[in-house]
Specification:
572 residues, alpha/beta, DNA Methylase, Chain A, domain 2, 8-stranded mixed β-sheet, 4-stranded antiparallel β-sheet, 14 strands, globular
Length: 572
């Protein structure tokens, strides 16, 4: 049978592609991934003929007549997961208003609209369907939202605090928006803005000693002296207001006096610095509005805040409506998948949207792959995934990541373990090196415990340990499925019975990557690639659902590999 040709967008390390290819019915022809280390991993584990692109925003899928071009002509299926940060554009605690990734989900939609594949799969975070994931309405969105029947919601968003400049600044920014003026010349560079922001935090402590200690710290002293010596006033290419310019000039003189330990009034310095920081903060956010062509309805002062009035719309509703208008049938009512139900030794709930061209549908609805396990007690456990690696001590040098399985014994009573052990060698069995304090924490923890179970004497390196998440310093429990695998190195996950961090390979096993799958890049990058990946077993289950929906039969499925009957399991 001819294999369906696949394009994988935001491919990462290739977990989604790997699961699709495992069925034997799909062949990845094109992949797109911007991260260099992830691209190396993808290239290492997939057909050398795969065309691997970096930046989706630079790809052109069709010509001026709308006809598909180049390698995109024969694509049957598009898969991928646009970065979830792209939806976090309403985080009011950040100095930015709109994530730089915000456009990527629309790039995914552009690929579907231009290429018109038989089927697609879009994977993302479970919370993607929530109301907090939204787009701000742009000029380009307005007419489309009317056609899709989506009513945007008015939002009042705080962009900064009121200052002595507020009235003049609001008028200036309204005019800049109306005339699409580039605000860059009026803004200081990011490094200086960040450094002054930190300076403000120290100034607010109202102690001269603390402020001077920060300023005279070697790196800060060099930074500020470099800025001051390059002519302080030239840190802005243009000034939007004469009073602001005078305050900026005074701020530079005061900063220089503080550097040379001349007595200054801290409260006066703090007020002036805060006014400037707030003005810069607000200007940066309006600059984002202008750059992203977001429709701005007003900028106004509300009590002690400056707020903007814009309109937003829910990301998930928009995506679903868009796909339906393009002629796709979706799994609209059943799109949350728990990887543990499909054999992965990990409870990981993800949103997976499956779409089939209406004319290609061979079933009444999109087929949702049937779970292998419904009860948590039935899920594969951490022991099934990594129990056999106890006898192989991991290394610490990422450049020496290949080991023989000379004295290794798979867990023959575990179908998952048999599935994972598909190679005579083991790669990436490398762990992070642990300092003395970390080792003491490892030794103090029992299976299933985490940082909060430690004695107070072992928590002293954290400023506010009460805010530490339950996943930090978690000692895994052999008889439980894993929590969602993120970056196991940053989370400091501990082996169930050995006092060490889990290795890259063990993290990969928890994600259901087979031993033949090799990861590339730095140690931290490999842990991160694994944490970002779609578990291949979950991807394979989704692929099986796509095949059944378009009327193609499989010789054997995941259940034939992971659920044994009287005739035993199929070795794959």
């Amino acid at each position: 049978m001819k294999k369906l040709k696949v394009m994988d967008l935001f491919a990462g390390a290739g977990g989604l592609s790997n699961g699709f290819e495992q069925t034997g019915n799909f062949e990845v022809k094109v992949a797109v991934e911007i991260n260099e280390n992830a691209r190396k991993t993808y290239k290492m584990n997939h057909n050398k003929d795969v065309l691997l692109h970096e930046d989706i925003t630079k790809l052109k899928f069709v010509d001026e007549n709308g006809d598909k071009i180049g390698e995109f002509r024969d694509i049957d299926v598009i898969i991928g997961g646009p970065p979830c940060q792209g939806f976090s554009n309403a985080n009011r605690q950040q100095n930015t208003l709109i994530s730089s990734n915000n456009n990527l989900v629309k790039q995914y939609l552009r690929a579907i609209e231009d290429i018109k594949p038989v089927a697609f799969v879009m994977e993302n975070v479970k919370s993607m369907e929530s109301e907090k994931h939204k787009f701000f309405m742009s000029e380009e969105d307005e007419a489309e939202l009317v056609n899709l029947g989506i009513e945007p919601v008015e939002e009042h968003i705080k962009v900064g605090s009121s200052t002595s400049y507020s009235a003049n600044l609001s008028n200036f920014l309204k005019n800049a928006y109306d005339h699409r003026i580039d605000l860059t010349p009026f803004m200081i560079n990011k490094d200086l803005f960040s450094k002054l922001n930190t300076l403000l935090k120290h100034a607010k402590k109202q102690t001269t000693d603390d402020l001077l200690h920060f300023i005279k710290k070697e790196t800060n002293y060099k930074f500020f002296m470099k800025v001051l010596n390059k002519q302080w006033l030239n840190q802005h290419r243009e000034y939007w207001n004469s009073l602001y310019q005078l305050d900026w000039d005074d701020l530079g003189k005061t900063l220089k006096n503080l550097i040379f330990t001349k007595t200054e009034e801290i409260s006066f310095f703090t007020d002036k610095l805060e006014n400037i920081i707030e003005a810069q903060k607000i200007m940066r956010k309006i600059s984002e509005i202008i750059e992203n062509k977001v429709l701005l309805f007003d900028i106004k002062e509300d009590q002690n805040d400056i707020e903007i009035i814009i309109k937003s719309f829910n990301v998930f509703n928009y995506i679903k409506s868009k796909f339906v208008t393009l002629g796709y049938v979706l799994n609209e009512d059943n799109y949350i998948f728990n990887a543990a139900q499909y054999g992965v030794a990990q409870e990981r709930s993800r949103l997976v949207l499956m779409g089939i061209k209406r004319e290609c549908l061979k079933t009444k609805t999109v087929v949702i792959p049937e779970p292998l396990f419904y009860n948590r007690k039935e899920y594969n456990k951490i022991y099934d995934a990594i129990g056999d690696l106890e006898t192989i001590s991991p290394g610490v040098d990422v450049k020496k990541d290949e080991m023989d399985k000379t004295f290794h014994r798979p867990l023959h009573d575990s179908p998952l373990n048999n599935y994972l052990n598909n190679n005579d060698k083991i790669y990436n069995h490398i762990r992070t090196e642990s300092r003395e304090v970390a080792l003491k924490r490892f030794q103090a923890l029992k299976e299933g415990q985490n940082f909060h179970n430690l004695d107070e004497s072992l928590k002293t390196t954290y400023t506010d340990h009460s805010r530490t998440q339950n996943t930090i310093y978690r000692r895994l429990a052999y008889n439980e499925p894993s929590d969602t695998v993120l970056n196991a190195r940053k989370s400091m996950w501990v082996h169930p019975v050995i006092d060490r961090a889990i290795s890259i390979r063990e993290a990969a096993r928890l994600q259901s990557f087979q031993d033949s799958y090799k990861f590339c890049g730095t140690k931290d990058s490999q842990y991160q690639q694994i944490g970002n990946a779609v578990p291949p077993l979950l991807a394979r289950a989704i692929a099986e659902g796509i095949l059944e929906t378009i009327g193609l039969k499989l010789k054997f499925k995941i259940k034939d590999i992971l659920i044994c009957n009287e005739k035993a399991c199929i070795k794959n």
